Amino acid sequence: MTTIATSAERLGRTVPPFGGFNLRFLAIEFKRRLRNRRTLIFTVVMPVTLFLLVGLPTKNVPLTATPIKDGGLSVAAYVLISMAVYGAMVASTSAGGAVAVERATGWSRQLRLTPLQPVAYIAIKVVSSLVLGLIAVVATFTVGVVTGVTMPMQAWIISGLVAWIGSLVFTALGLFIGYLVPSENVMQFLGPILAILALFGGLFAPLSQFPQVIQDIARWTPVYGLGEIARAPLTGEAFDWAAVANIVLWLVIFSVGAALAFRRDTKRV
Amino acid sequence: MTNTSAAPPLTTTTAAIAASGLTKSYGKVHAVRGIDLTVEPGEIVAFLGPNGAGKTTTIDMLLGLAKPDEGSVSVYGMSPRAAISRGLVSAVMQTGGLLQDITVRETVELTGSLFSDPRPVDEVLRRAGILDIGDRIVKKCSGGQQQRLRFAMALLSDPGLLILDEPTTGMDVEGRRDFWNAIREDAKSGRTVIFATHYLEEADAYADRIILVRKGQIVADGSAAEIKNLASGRIVRASIADADEKALRAIAGVNDVEVRPEGVLVRASDSDAVARYLLTKTDAKDIEITSHNLEEAFIALTADDDEEDKS
C-alpha cells in the first residue's frame, strides 16, 4: 500500500457562500418548473381559460352601482382578480410541493452530499415559487388587458401584488406537504384540495351566493383572506382586518408545519 | 506527493477516514454492531459483504447521512458534513438521486454550482465518459449512463476521497467494465477510493485492500491474497488406496480430511506439505491441488448469514 498525503490545497478548501444558494441553481430550478407541462396548465392555461369562459362574458355587467360607461367596474374584473389569485396559489403550491418529488426520488439525499445548506434549498423553492406566481398573475392580467377589462391603475397594481405576494401562504403549504409526504404525485391530490379551498375562498363564485353556513365556514379557510384582500381595491370595502388575520394565521400554520416536517425529515436520516 | 506551500503544514497525513466503535440500529435490527475503520490517503478499499451485511449503513455514517448510535467518524480530521461542505469527500450512491426532467449536463452544472471551486463541467463529463450524451434528458439514460452521471457529479469537487456504494448494481458486463475502467483511470491521480460491493470479482480486481463485513461487523481486513489465505486456501485431492487419515491430520496446516472410496480430499493452508507427504510416504496418484477462489473464501467467511440486517 502506498500512502499519498492529501494535498494541503485540498484540505484548505472553503465552503461556498450563501449556503450554496446561487443563480445557476435558481435558473435550472426554474427551467424545470417551466418544462413541466402540468404546472403550466394549472398555473396559466386554466386560470386564463376560466377567465375567458366565465369572466369575459360579464365584461359589460356592472359590479357596483356605477355603470361601466361612467367608469364603473365590471364583474369580469372581479373574476379576473380571482383567477390571478388562483393561478398564483397553484403555482406556489406546486413550486413548494416539488420538495415531495425530490425527496421521493432521492434527489434531496443527493443534495446532502453537496455543500448546499437546507435553508438555501428552501430559499430556492421560495424564490422559484415567487417567479412562477408572478408569471401566473401577469399572464392572467395580460389577457384581461387585451380583452378590454378596465380597472383603475391602483387596483391593477394592488390586486396583482396581493395575489402574488400572498401566494407565499401556499408556498408554505407546498413545503409543508412536500416535507410531510414523499410522493412523486403530490400535486395530483393537492390540486383538487386547492380547487375546494379556492371555492371556499370565493374565487369561483362570490361567497354571498352560498348559504350562510358555508359563508361562515369559508371565513376560516386559507384562500378566503387572500381573495378578500386582493379584490378589496375593486369593491372599495373597508380594509378587512379579519381577512388579514386569516392570511397571517394560515401562513403561520403552514410555515410551522413545514418547519416541523422538515426537522422530522432531516432527523430521520 | 508533498506539500510545498509556505503555510504551516496542514495535517497532510490525516487519515481519510477514521471511524471507531460505530453502531447503528433501526428498531430491532442491528445493522452495524461495532465497526472500527481507518483508511489512509491513497488506498483503494473494497467493502465486501453479502446483501444486508451493513455496508450501506456504514457508508451512510461515513458520509453523515446517518448518525451513529455510538462511536465517531472523522473524515480528514473533521466531521463528515464539514468535509462534504469543503468538497473533500463525495459519493456515488446506489440508486435514485437524480432529477429525471433535466439533461445530463444540467445535472452536472447544477451540482457544480453548489461547490465553491468545482472542476469544469466538460472535464468531469469526459472523465466519466459521458461527454457525448450531455444533452440527453436523464430519464432517457440507461442505468449505466445514470451511474456514470453520478460519478461525474462526484468528481466535480475533485475530492480526496470517493465513496462508491454498490456502484455497478444493475449494469451489464460491458457497462460494469467501462465504469471500473473510468474509476481505475481516475484513481491513478492518488484519490482514495472506498467502494462497497457484493461482487467478489470487483473487490479482487480493483481493490488493494478488502474489508469483509458480515452481520454489521468486520470479519476480515487485508489484501485479496490475505483474505483468500484466511479462509484457508487449498484443496489437495489424490487417488489413494487406504489413506491414513490420522497421519494426514497430523500434518501442520491441515484443516480437514475427507476419506472417500476413490481417494482423499484434504483442505490445508500448506498444500505443499500435504503433497510432499502424499508423494513421498504413500502411493497416492493423480494429485491435484486447487486453490480456493475468493468466492469460496467469501462464502466461508460470511457463511451463516441471516436476514437480520438491512442493506
Describe the structure.
The complex is a heterodimer of chains A (269) and B (311). By secondary structure, chain A is mainly alpha-helical. Chain A has twelve helices and no strands. Chain A is elongated and about 80 Å long. The two termini of chain A are 34 Å apart. The N terminus of chain A is likely disordered. Chain B is an alpha/beta fold and 311 residues long. Helix content of chain B is 32%, strand content 27%. Chain B contains eleven helices and 13 strands. In chain B, the strands form three sheets. A six-stranded mixed beta sheet of chain B has the order 5-6-7-3-8-9, with helices on both faces. Chain B starts with 16 loop residues before the first strand and ends in a 9-residue tail after the last helix.
Summarize this structure briefly.
The complex is a heterodimer of chains A (269) and B (311). Chain A is mainly α.
End-to-end C-alpha gap of chain B = 37 Å
Overall mean pLDDT of chain B stands at 85
Largest beta-sheet details of chain B: 6 strands, mixed
Low-confidence stretches of chain B are 1-11, 305-311
Fraction of helical residues of chain A = over 70%
Q: DSSP strand (E) fraction of chain B?
A: 25-35%
* Number of E-state strands of chain B: 13
Number of helices of chain B: 11
Radius of gyration from the alpha-carbon trace of chain B, in angstroms: 24 Å
Roughly what is the average pLDDT of chain A, rounded to an integer?
A: 87
Helix content of chain B: 25-40%
| Structural class by SSE content of chain B | alpha/beta
- Label the overall shape of chain A: elongated
**What multimeric state do the chains show?**
heterodimer
- N- to C-terminal separation of chain A? 34 Å
Question: What summary fits the major beta sheet of chain A?
Answer: none
- With strands numbered from the N-terminus, the spatial order across the biggest sheet of chain B is 5-6-7-3-8-9
What pattern of helices and strands is seen along the backbone of chain B?
A: EEEHEHEHHHEHEHEEHEHEEHEH
